[in-house]
Amino acid sequence: GADDTEEKTQTIDPKHIFPPQHTDMPEEMRVETMELCVTACEKFATNNESAAKMIKESMDKKFGSSWHVVIGEGFGFEITHEVKNLLYMFFGGGLAVCVWKCS
Amino acid sequence: MGNEEMNQKTKHMLQAPNVNSHQKAAVAKGVKAIGKKKDEEEGLDTAEGEEWMQGKTLVKPPDQLDLTEAELNEEITRVLKASNPNAPQNVVRYSFKEGCYKPIVFVDQMAIHFELEGNLVHKESDEGRRLMAKQAEVDDGGGVERPDNVAIKAAKREQKLTNQFNFNERASQTLNNTPRDISCQTEPPPRANFSATANQWEIYDFYVEELQRREKSKEKHEGQFLNKEEDKSKKKMIQAETQNDDISQLAKVVKIIERMVNQNIFDDVAQDFMYFEDASDEFRGEKGTLLPLWTFQYDKAKSLSVTALCWNHKYNDLFAVGLGSHEFTQQGGGMLLFYTLKNPSYPEFIFNTASGVMCLDIHEHLSYLVAVGLYDGCVAVYNLKKKTDQPIYNSRASSGKHTSAVMQVKWQKDDLDSNHNFISVSADGRLVSWTLVKHELVFTEIIKLPVIDTIPDDLKDVIPTVGTSLDFHKQKDYSFLVGTEHGKIHKGSKYYSSKFLEKYDAHFMNVTRVKWNPFHPDVFISCGWDWMVKIWDQTMKSPVFTFELKTSVTDVAWAPYSSTVFAAVTTDGKVHVFDLNINKYEALCQQKVVSKKTKLFNIEFNPVHPIIIVGDDRGHVTSLKLSPNLRKKPKEKKGQDLPKGPEVEIAKMEQLLSSMR
């Protein structure tokens, strides 16, 4: 319980090294996207919507149109995504970010 | 003087012609006043001056020069020149011809003071006419000046008419390609579905897993303070091991399941194999039957024919099948397959060989070593323990390999250096011993088959005696028998390399198999294409027993459980089983085991179980169970050892024969 959470908080620091929960993106794209998500979530720590907006707009610019971003603490989802354009990762111990492309 | 003074003033005064006469009068009055003040005597002059002055008004600039009269009357000459004072007088141009600067004398002296471009156009000029034509067009609506219009139009046409002699108008139209509609639809990028739940506990679980993984990798890192390369290699090994473990574990499981499934499918066959004893044998008297069990076939071996069979001594359910072709004209690749009775649907081991397999032998003690003789004269040794499908030894490139098909190979006991070795006989008439020394096969020629008498002397070296079969004595393993294509059987010894000990005129045609009796030291059996199966005593020149089996006999084998039982296969697909103890003249069983037109080529008894396997020319191996009648052990001699039993029997036979002689 407590020890585990302590461990968790200790190792949350190097969060950018954590591998994502599920992804089928190519290496470069994945790294860039993860960094972008981390930046956005840090910047808009209180407002998920703005963070999602920032991520979505940057992704659209960089990788093409029609990206979708969901950020939250508790949700289930079923999505259809273009192959090699999905990233599902956790951030900061309590936030889940799902990014996918589908036109 | 006053006048002159007045004149001075008036002369040097500027005139102002546009001033009103009223003003003039005023000025004049002003002047007059001055004049009046100065001199009334000069009234007339002043009146004249007034009149003159009334015509012009003079304004004196403040900075005008005041000159004396003398200076005023001075004549100043002015010269007018045609030269332009502003034009440069010392223009110099570089002359390339002379290579120096030269002054130009004649300089343009024209100075343009004013320039104004006019917009008048001559009526007769082109531009004038065009303008007039335009005007005429504009005026056309009004109908003004029609004759002028006509003239203008005529002028226009005149201009357009080109000389008919010099100019030609020609027009052409290229072929227009028919337009086509092509539409295309690109494939949309592939899509996939994905679903997950994002909860606090999911996130927590994931983090915990990740931590564990990290710790493991940290341990691995800490545990190995070696070179980076070693680390990497160890990591690779660990990975490979884990991979191997997974796959190999799976392979084991799969194998077991495969065998289980096979057993289920062939359940009745397996039951027969173990327990079935044909009860009807009691009613048949001496005769017995063969019960067909499993058939072993391999898809890729369909075009090949079975050329060799051999049971494995250690694992009694494993046997080897050599596949190739007996036909000279139809040579292709070959195969070496290993089947087990536990899995009749697929071979356990598969080896592909470059040319057809003609013979094989499994080592007696080391049952993973298999020697194979190929149609192209090579011999190869395979190690079943190794995972590769390449032979561990191959005589392909080495010298001394046979120049013709290898007909038989037999393993020998390890030599003095405890190297494995085997002996091969081939169609080039040589018996060669091969020793497995480290990584190569070393050959030693043992003996060359004697040349046939009928061949003329000068060809004796060229035409070899084709050896077709080879067998070594069970007890005295230096003694061996070789069968030839011409029907002779030669007995030789490993210690004699120049000559054979004995020659038997066995058959009229090819001797297909010669085999020592597993029990009796003097008896051997031979069979050939001349339809005969003969049993010999090595001390006698003529056979003890002769059997004729209506077609070419391709193989014969002694039963391992009795010295008087043997079986033969023929090209008409029949298996003949004999027991000399019971019937000296007839087969106990003559049974057709394969479909028509399939030839049987090989037969082998299983060392333990009462089954035989036969190989045919379609690449199939059929297993048959011997009915009890065929497996009778000599009844009277229960208490004694078997070998002695038959010996007594053969002694009895010899007596019979000698009585027949």
From TrEMBL, chain A:
<comment type="similarity">
    <text>Belongs to the dynein light chain family.</text>
</comment>
<keyword id="KW-0243">Dynein</keyword>
<keyword id="KW-0963">Cytoplasm</keyword>
<dbReference type="InterPro" id="IPR001372">
    <property type="entry name" value="Dynein_light_chain_typ-1/2"/>
</dbReference>
<keyword id="KW-0505">Motor protein</keyword>
<comment type="function">
    <text>Force generating protein of respiratory cilia. Produces force towards the minus ends of microtubules. Dynein has ATPase activity.</text>
</comment>
<keyword id="KW-0206">Cytoskeleton</keyword>
<keyword id="KW-0493">Microtubule</keyword>
<dbReference type="InterPro" id="IPR037177">
    <property type="entry name" value="DLC_sf"/>
</dbReference>
<feature type="compositionally biased region" description="Basic and acidic residues">
    <location>
        <begin position="7"/>
        <end position="16"/>
    </location>
</feature>
<dbReference type="GO" id="GO:0005874">
    <property type="term" value="C:microtubule"/>
</dbReference>
<comment type="subunit">
    <text>Consists of at least two heavy chains and a number of intermediate and light chains.</text>
</comment>
<protein>
    <recommendedName>
        <fullName>Dynein light chain</fullName>
    </recommendedName>
</protein>
<dbReference type="GO" id="GO:0005930">
    <property type="term" value="C:axoneme"/>
</dbReference>
<keyword id="KW-0966">Cell projection</keyword>
<dbReference type="GO" id="GO:0030286">
    <property type="term" value="C:dynein complex"/>
</dbReference>
<dbReference type="Pfam" id="PF01221">
    <property type="entry name" value="Dynein_light"/>
</dbReference>
<keyword id="KW-0969">Cilium</keyword>
<feature type="region of interest" description="Disordered">
    <location>
        <begin position="1"/>
        <end position="23"/>
    </location>
</feature>
<dbReference type="GO" id="GO:0007017">
    <property type="term" value="P:microtubule-based process"/>
</dbReference>
Automatic annotation (TrEMBL), chain B:
<protein>
    <recommendedName>
        <fullName>Dynein axonemal intermediate chain 1</fullName>
    </recommendedName>
</protein>
<feature type="region of interest" description="Disordered">
    <location>
        <begin position="1"/>
        <end position="48"/>
    </location>
</feature>
<dbReference type="GO" id="GO:0007368">
    <property type="term" value="P:determination of left/right symmetry"/>
</dbReference>
<comment type="function">
    <text>Part of the dynein complex of respiratory cilia.</text>
</comment>
<keyword id="KW-0677">Repeat</keyword>
<keyword id="KW-0243">Dynein</keyword>
<comment type="similarity">
    <text>Belongs to the dynein intermediate chain family.</text>
</comment>
<dbReference type="GO" id="GO:0045503">
    <property type="term" value="F:dynein light chain binding"/>
</dbReference>
<keyword id="KW-0966">Cell projection</keyword>
<dbReference type="InterPro" id="IPR015943">
    <property type="entry name" value="WD40/YVTN_repeat-like_dom_sf"/>
</dbReference>
<dbReference type="GO" id="GO:0003341">
    <property type="term" value="P:cilium movement"/>
</dbReference>
<comment type="subunit">
    <text>Consists of at least two heavy chains and a number of intermediate and light chains. Interacts with BICD2. Interacts with CFAP45 and CFAP52. Interacts with CFAP53.</text>
</comment>
<feature type="repeat" description="WD">
    <location>
        <begin position="504"/>
        <end position="537"/>
    </location>
</feature>
<dbReference type="InterPro" id="IPR036322">
    <property type="entry name" value="WD40_repeat_dom_sf"/>
</dbReference>
<dbReference type="Pfam" id="PF00400">
    <property type="entry name" value="WD40"/>
</dbReference>
<dbReference type="InterPro" id="IPR050687">
    <property type="entry name" value="Dynein_IC"/>
</dbReference>
<feature type="compositionally biased region" description="Low complexity">
    <location>
        <begin position="24"/>
        <end position="33"/>
    </location>
</feature>
<keyword id="KW-0853">WD repeat</keyword>
<keyword id="KW-0206">Cytoskeleton</keyword>
<dbReference type="InterPro" id="IPR001680">
    <property type="entry name" value="WD40_rpt"/>
</dbReference>
<keyword id="KW-0963">Cytoplasm</keyword>
<dbReference type="GO" id="GO:0005874">
    <property type="term" value="C:microtubule"/>
</dbReference>
